[in-house]
Design goal:
Elements lengths: L12 H4 L30 H12 L3 H4 L7 H4 L3 H28 L6 H9 L1 H34 L8 E7 L2 E6 H18 L2 H29 L24 H14 L16 H30 L11 H10 L1 H35 L18 H17 L2 H29 L14 H20 L1 H12 L1 H19 L17
Antiparallel strand pairs: 1-2
Length: 520
């Protein structure tokens, strides 16, 4: 029996200007214009695979770092009850976004996910600018930062392969480019995981799933053993006398809570990437929403549970000076050995996040190429492994280059504003598409609509405002990077038009009205 294949669709006749054209009968569901055509991606990911992918995409190193330190959320919310409430609120707010994406993904279950949502709601330009920024910095920069972070922790166990060992310093354009063993280690990890995913999405997700299960087990072990035999105290969970002491200027007001939410929402960030793989999920109308619901529920429980153990291990005031809160708490509970094992847990967690990130990104670049809005060869699918091999290769090359450049952190800071802007637009797109295309099948409808998408967009707007106020220069540079995509869009859209004219492409009359378009 052949594997179910991913589908592609074509733009709505009304949007393409095909008014009054008779629809061509088709047995395929809306948006499945190439369903059954050989050589495409295959639907190989089940509910279990997809749920583990959501967890792997989100949980990296943030849960070990965000709570503690001089600028951590414990300092902003210097009360055990407020701290736990903050992590619960972060999970609930992220869950609201996941519910919105669940409807979009079930209605448009095709490769590219958020790129497809933005393109269908606002047109090619918006979709392209998102994909452009994703490739240039957002996704590849995240991948580079994760890989170098992994190398830093790896260096604790094997110093010769850590970021502290500089191998060469090269003068370049008035600056010195330093290459460390850790950067080469980071590149090696990206290359290794790209090779694993080259041989099939099922193989890649199986490997990633195993890593994620081991990661979850390590979290569960830390939480259970920490509370059962760890040298902590439940008295740490009682509200401290004079809770505002040491809290700094942030105090306990609404401003402090908003700042803490910004940090926590970034800790929960990454769940939207599961929609990138929608074209390879079996029964996506059911499994995509469920994977987001199950995955975000598990992540919230893990984050809240880990912070309860941190509080059990130390008073909240001690967290202000603990930048690596995970290792500090493990050291308090189990001694030096516990701290070392926690560092190993962080290493494993980041490795699993890298693996999941390597899987998701290429599907967006593949979708753009299928739409004629990126290099055509990136749309190539391996005839045997059925993976977007050229997209995987380009992601590997560019993220590796960012690792070696050492500029990934700065570049990513530049595009935070743009990234949140696209989150807000995607959240609003569920309202736009319901109004524009009420006839589309929607196997899953967002709970609490329209309040849920409005809440999610409002959160994004608050984060946007905070980013603009706290990082005006970086936000400006981010918009400049976004603007650089305009000439690229004009180039590819012109090439797309020339190619269609050259081959005598059929016009909108061949497309059933109301049918979403694009690759799956």
């Amino acid at each position: 029996m052949s594997e179910p294949r991913e589908g592609t669709g074509s733009r709505s006749g009304a949007r393409a200007g095909g008014c009054g054209a008779p629809a061509v009968p088709s047995a395929a569901p809306p948006g499945d214009r190439h369903a059954g055509a050989g050589g495409g991606l295959i639907r190989a990911l089940g509910l279990w695979d997809s749920t583990l992918l959501v967890i792997g995409l989100v949980i990296g190193s943030a849960v070990f770092l965000v709570t503690g330190g001089s600028s951590g959320v414990a300092r902003l919310l210097p009360s055990p009850g407020l701290l736990i409430l903050g992590w619960v609120a972060g999970g609930v707010l992220s869950f609201a976004g996941a519910l919105v994406y669940a409807e979009l993904g079930a209605a448009l279950p095709r490769a590219g996910g958020q790129y497809v949502f933005l393109r269908e709601a606002y047109g090619d330009l918006t979709g392209f600018l998102y994909g452009w920024t994703l490739f240039a910095v957002i996704h590849t920069g995240t991948l580079a930062a994760l890989a170098v972070g992994y190398a830093r922790y790896f260096g604790l166990f094997v110093p010769a392969l850590g970021t502290g060992r500089v191998l060469a310093s090269v003068p370049l354009l008035g600056h010195t480019l330093s290459i460390s063993a850790g950067q080469l280690n980071a590149v090696a990890v990206i290359v290794f995981l790209s090779i694993v995913n080259y041989f099939g999405v099922k193989e890649g997700s199986l490997f990633q799933g195993i890593v994620t299960v081991v990661k979850i087990v390590s979290f569960a072990g830390f939480m259970l053993l920490g509370m059962a035999i760890g040298k902590g105290s439940w008295s740490h969970l009682a509200p401290p006398a004079g809770a505002t002491q040491g809290a700094g200027a942030a105090g306990l007001g609404a401003g402090a809570f908003i700042l803490s939410m910004v940090a926590m929402l970034w800790a929960y960030e990454g769940w939207n990437n599961i929609t990138f793989t929608a074209g390879e999920i079996k029964d996506p109308e059911r499994n995509l929403p469920l994977s987001l619901i199950f995955g975000m529920s598990a992540i919230t429980l893990i984050y809240v549970g880990m912070n309860l153990v941190y509080l059990y291990a130390m008073p909240i005031g001690d967290m202000f000076s603990s930048e690596t809160i995970g290792e500090a708490a493990a050291g308090r509970l189990f001694g030096p050995t516990g701290s070392t094992l926690m560092s190993l847990c962080v290493l494993l967690s980041v490795f699993g996040c890298i693996s999941a990130t390597v899987i998701s990104g290429p599907r967006v670049f593949y979708a753009m190429a299928k739409d004629g809005l990126f290099f055509r060869q990136i749309a190539a699918v391996h005839p045997r492994h059925r993976t977007p091999t050229k997209a995987i290769l380009w992601q590997c090359l560019w993220s590796s280059a960012l690792c070696l450049s050492g500029t990934y952190d700065q570049l990513y800071t530049f595009v935070i504003f743009a990234a949140v802007l696209f989150y807000a637009l995607a959240g609003a797109s569920v309202i736009v598409l319901r109004r524009r295309h009420p006839e589309w099948p929607r196997p899953y409808r967002t709970w609490g609509y329209p309040a849920t998408p409005i809440l999610y967009v409002a959160i994004c707007v608050i984060v946007l405002g905070n980013t603009l106020i706290s990082q005006p220069k970086e936000s400006g540079w981010g918009l400049a990077i976004l603007a650089c995509g305009l000439p690229a869009y004009l180039y590819w859209s012109r090439r797309k038009g020339d190619s269609a004219a050259a081959v005598g492409a059929p016009g909108p009359a061949a497309v059933a009205p109301g049918t979403p378009r694009g690759p799956a």
